[in-house]
Specification:
Blueprint: H1 4-10, H2 18-30, H3 34-37, H4 43-52, H5 57-77, E1 83-87, H6 100-107, H7 109-116, E2 121-124, E3 127-131, H8 134-146
Antiparallel strand pairs: 1-3, 2-3
Helix pairs in contact: 2-4, 2-5
Amino acid sequence: MPGRSWWARRTSTSSPGASPARTRTVRRTHEGTYPANAASYSAGVRRKPDDAAGIGHRDYRRAVEELSAVRAAFFAKMAGIDVLITPTLGGPAPRAGCDEAAVRGEVGRITAVVSALGLPALAIGDLQLVGRSESAVLRAGLCREARGGTVPAPR
């Protein structure tokens, strides 16, 4: 498949800009509620906004610019392709109650990049549909459902 190695490189946990931009966005999203309610967040979730405190504006802007360039390259590689099917998880599903921060990088390495790039996506069980548009992704999901695609039961 002609862009396969490109996609594999982009799904590593060290994708350009993904971590600083995503982490800082998490902090900004929760800044109105997090400080007063920090104790109600799990330790793994608390680490996200706490880690973002050290990301300055310059690093954030650079990360956003890198993500924009990667997003444009993704769409260029997707020319003529409406939907890309990927695994949802980058590894085995973690056990309930595990330290989320300890498994976040490996387990979320695919969905995190898709999310950081702002790409339309739909996770159905162990598959993730990623596309050029929300309508293309939703159409593909409806087709899977109409053909009897099922979502596996949780373990």
